Description:
Layout: E1 5-12, H1 24-37, E2 48-52, E3 78-81, H2 87-100, E4 106-114, H3 120-137, H4 142-149, H5 153-169, H6 173-187, H7 202-206, E5 210-212, E6 215-216, E7 225-234, H8 235-241, E8 246-255, H9 277-290, H10 295-298, E9 301-303, H11 309-318, H12 327-332, H13 349-352, H14 356-372, E10 385-392, E11 397-404
Parallel strand pairs: 2-3, 2-4, 9-10
Antiparallel strand pairs: 1-7, 1-8, 4-7, 5-6, 8-11, 10-11
Amino acid sequence: xxxxxxxxxxxxxxxxxxxxxxxxxxxxxxxxxxxxxxxxxxxxxxxxxxxxxxxxxxxxxxxxxxxxxxxxxxxxxxxxxxxxxxxxxxxxxxxxxxxxxxxxxxxxxxxxxxxxxxxxxxxxxxxxxxxxxxxxxxxxxxxxxxxxxxxxxxxxxxxxxxxxxxxxxxxxxxxxxxxxxxxxxxxxxxxxxxxxxxxxxxxxxxxxxxxxxxxxxxxxxxxxxxxxxxxxxxxxxxxxxxxxxxxxxxxxxxxxxxxxxxxxxxxxxxxxxxxxxxxxxxxxxxxxxxxxxxxxxxxxxxxxxxxxxxxxxxxxxxxxxxxxxxxxxxxxxxxxxxxxxxxxxxxxxxxxxxxxxxxxxxxxxxxxxxxxxxxxxxxxxxxxxxxxxxxxxxxxxxxxxxxxxxxxxxxxxxx
Length: 415
């Protein structure tokens, strides 16, 4: 077994729809300074920096080349990661392995997005153009591509998942709105979040117009400017940085390619959009690595990546925390509230704050802070084990980090 990685700090910038008071480098610096100030660590202690954002979303490729000084990367090893919505989760896993391998002692994991500087649609198009050109070379005609790939982007997939989930679970639009209300109330208790709505009601959510049935305007994620930073180090090094280290006991990154592409480039419409096999496999791998046999009993807290409310319900089931088609019932009974048996997204989640490149890293960061007892909306429950989940790629990639206040337990078998 390699070195045991631990997390000693996590920091954020202020998030908003438009952070016009700062440029990308200054936005990143806010989160890094916040992370460093929360522990006895300085930028000189950092051996390597791993950064992530969605390329071209701000209208600039490889922006880290000109923000070196602001993020403390001068004369230090630097790795850039981009995997769609899961970018931040992939950054967290890359930082984990950078320490676990023994290559570096202390690693700064950073991720950001300043979407107000550019166009997400244009950024996505720059990626899609390359894929389209390949399909055309393979003999697909334009009309077939248009039919197969016209799923309506993220909201189209989210709506299709929502209809499917509602059909199988018998949850209602009111159940979806209840998830939103809980998240927006939670976000109001965190200083760094975007949509703070402490007085939002289910009726107000249901009174907003549909974007794509059953998802309404009041149910969807915002576009946010913001950044996140975390510090990973060895168990031995952690002693000089903090009294509350968080052990990273398991990680997994699984892509279920056929969920999107299929042999005919048919898109999500050909398969069950709620299956999310990648989530089930990533959970199995990460839980085994962490020595967790009964996640529904052993995990105390969950941060899941859910731009849309149906996804929050879906992920909790696919990750083994609730039985299939029952998550909405747990929300009705208050199980997932801040003071519930299994608090979920006390940060407000992606549905309240979505700086795309940073969003999945923020799930890990908030899970770690809950274990440390330092979260903005801290659960009164003792949090010993928590998970940080990411979703993205071509809507098919899952990342998962399993965190705890103690090292991993021994387990039989391998990964």
